[in-house]
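Agenda item 2: zinc ion complex prediction
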Amino acid sequence: MQQYISRRFIMFFMILVAVLALVFMLVHYALDNKGADPNDAAATTPVEEGSADLAADTPEPTATPSAADPYDAVKNYWSESQLTQAWGPDQVVEHLFFHPIIAYPKYAFYESGASESQRLGLDDWMVTVDEYNKILQSVYDKGFILVAMEDVWSEVTDESGTHMVRNTLMLPEGKKPLIISFDDVNYYPYMLEEGFTSKLVVGDDGEIWAECTDPYTKEVFLTKDLDATPILDQFVYQHPDFSLNGAKAIFSLTGYEGILGYRTQIDSEIPAGTEAEFEANRQKEIEAVKPVIERLKETGWTFGSHTWGHINLAAESTDLGWVQKDTEKWLDEVGSLVGPTNILFYPHGARPDGDDWHTTGPKMQYLHDKGFRVFASVGINSFSYIKQDISAVICDRLHPDGTTLRSGACIQEYSKFYDTYEIFDPIRPDLGNTWPTS
Ligand SMILES: [Zn+2]
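Presented output:
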């Protein structure tokens, strides 16, 4: 009997030791992963293809960092007593926008299978990773501070009715406010073939990473160095004084090929018999994108509409019925995931109803009825105008890209942000420029 008891005791003791060893290993593993320095600009993690999908299938508590969230240091960097500079309604709030940045410029400009016109389009409308890094550094060095677009204008109701006002921003002394927006953060399939990253994911460290396929080796890996979003996250961690109250940038999203690299859209041409399979996959993508949206929102990123179908609001052929259908789809498929917004970024910069400034045609009236108040186009300066007839703001954004970098006429306007000669990436194709000759 005694022998029996002691044998049981020994077995129990051995199991206890094994369990303790396992717990010790797990804790160590977790600490190692937590220890990944969010400021490490060179951080990359190889992953198996599809593993991000699998990881996203089971939302883990690790995706919501607890007390040690490094973003808190950004959000709380400026104390209220330091915000003593009033930036009034008549002072310009500069606004720059970017398309997705070119992760592999040599591949994108010279080696991908894309047509020449597609490659020229990339040169026209995008910047390379190097250019983007230099632009961020330059606007920071010149004293700009990121502000949330949502904080710049508000809707008020007073004796003159309901209308928009430009708010007075309280800034640290010496800083100038800057809005940054990112258009088409959808990871369109065509871009994935042309040297861009492929989706945003939440990494083991709880931060946003970009998934990328090396176009040469086809290796799939996670990176914070090749995509505009994690690059800005890292930059703000390194320079928390670059952000007012934790602001980052606003995504301008379409819906027709999903959002953020997830195929969340309802396709109008689903082959007969595959509807159930399509919908099951779509629901999987919706679940997978949710933690990404959640982390983006809790770290200063916001969302606006770029219409569902990237429609041209100025075109005659885009009639009111089409705008209505498109807007409903955006609200159903994108708004339902990213939450409400009152900001609309015109695709192609195309203004509805001919002239959105002086007139309010049926398209803008409808968009206003649907809750949009701030209508952003593209222009030669950060112009903004509060409409007098309805409660709305018209504004323009500047666009660092090949067209403006090659343009001598833009050098002066952009010099408040950067020196064009220093930014221009020599890897761009030899398409000339109109810079002044000295
Ligand atoms: Zn666009």
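Discussion summary: Residues 1-5, 26-61 have pLDDT under 50 and may be disordered.
Owner for follow-up: CH.
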